[in-house]
């Protein structure tokens, strides 16, 4: 990825949100295609569920095998989190490094997701990432919404592209909780400090280079 500063950075928090949500920015598939010379997908959570919004598998980069778990910009389903946790534990046993791509507005929170154990699936992925001995590197490529994004983020090894943001909650929802009107959403985004350069300053992501 280009280092922060090599490409124009978002001027405001809301600008960061707009850029992360733009249909024109690169998505996970483009990053995976550019990074790997070949890939073999891993699908399913071994509980009968699949999530097309979480791409998992093993690929070859510079002659080396690397595992990957990549969100595609949708709200991640419980099956997606379980599949990613399964992949990370397998890679850990095999001593294979892992690349995760973060891009989700947040975890799916509908009734079906709750019935499928969304909270437990996210917690299990947190545990898989935290306990892995193999190196895990994370690139934030778009939206980084709440725990649904944080679960895939490697502590101390998370990087961000200029077209991304990371937030504990979406600006629209933060404004609603604070009983602010729609006209205050943009200013709320600024107060959340969600721009890539804010994340570097806060120590949430690592400066590139």
Structure description:
This protein is of the alpha/beta class and 209 residues long. It has one domain: Alpha-Beta Complex (2-enoyl-CoA Hydratase, Chain A, domain 1), CATH 3.90.226.10. Helix content is 38%, strand content 21%. The protein contains nine helices and seven strands; from the N terminus they run ααβββαβααβαββααα. It has helices at residues 13-21, 28-35, 78-94, 111-115, 118-131, 146-150, 171-177, 185-192, 196-202; strands at residues 38-42, 54-61, 64-71, 98-104, 136-145, 158-160, 165-167. Strands 1, 2, 3, 4, 5, 6 and 7 form a seven-stranded mixed beta sheet that branches. α3 runs parallel beside α5 and α7 crosses α8.
Pick out its properties.
209 residues, alpha/beta, 2-enoyl-CoA Hydratase, Chain A, domain 1, seven-stranded mixed beta sheet, 9 helices, 38% helix, globular
- What is the tally of helical segments? 9
CATH architecture name: Alpha-Beta Complex
Largest sheet: 7 strands, mixed
- The fourth-level CATH homologous superfamily is 2-enoyl-CoA Hydratase, Chain A, domain 1
Could you give the distance between the termini? 10 Å
User: Helices and strands: which structural class?
Assistant: alpha/beta
Quaternary organization? single chain
Classify the fold: give the CATH topology.
Answer: 2-enoyl-CoA Hydratase, Chain A, domain 1
Structurally, how many domains make up the residues? 1
Share of β-strand residues: 15-25%
What is the alpha-carbon Rg in Å?
A: 17 Å
Taking pLDDT < 50 over at least 5 consecutive residues as the criterion, the unreliable ranges are: 1-6
Total strand count, please? 7
Helix content percent band: 25-40%
Q: Can you identify the CATH class?
A: Alpha Beta
Mean pLDDT: 92
**Run of helices and strands:** HHEEEHEHHEHEEHHH
- How would you describe the shape? globular
């Amino acid at each position: 990825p280009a280092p922060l500063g090599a490409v124009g950075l978002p001027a405001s928090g809301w600008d960061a949100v707009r850029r992360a949500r733009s249909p024109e920015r690169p998505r996970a598939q483009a990053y995976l295609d550019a990074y790997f010379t070949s890939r073999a997908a891993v699908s399913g959570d071994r509980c009968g569920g699949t999530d097309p919004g979480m791409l998992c598998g093993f690929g070859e980069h510079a002659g080396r095998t690397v595992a990957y778990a990549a969100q595609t910009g949708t709200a991640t389903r419980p099956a997606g989190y379980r599949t990613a946790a399964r992949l990370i534990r397998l890679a850990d046993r095999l001593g294979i490094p892992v690349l995760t791509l973060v891009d989700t507005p947040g975890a799916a929170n509908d009734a079906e997701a709750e019935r499928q154990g969304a909270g437990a699936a996210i917690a299990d992925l947190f545990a898989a990432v935290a306990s892995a001995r193999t190196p895990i590197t994370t690139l934030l490529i778009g939206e980084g919404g709440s725990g649904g994004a944080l679960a895939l983020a490697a502590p101390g090894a998370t990087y961000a592209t200029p077209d991304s943001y990371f937030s504990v909650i979406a600006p629209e929802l933060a404004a609603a909780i604070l009983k602010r009107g729609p006209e205050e959403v943009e200013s709320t985004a600024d107060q959340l400090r969600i721009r890539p350069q804010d994340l570097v300053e806060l120590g949430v992501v690592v400066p590139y280079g």
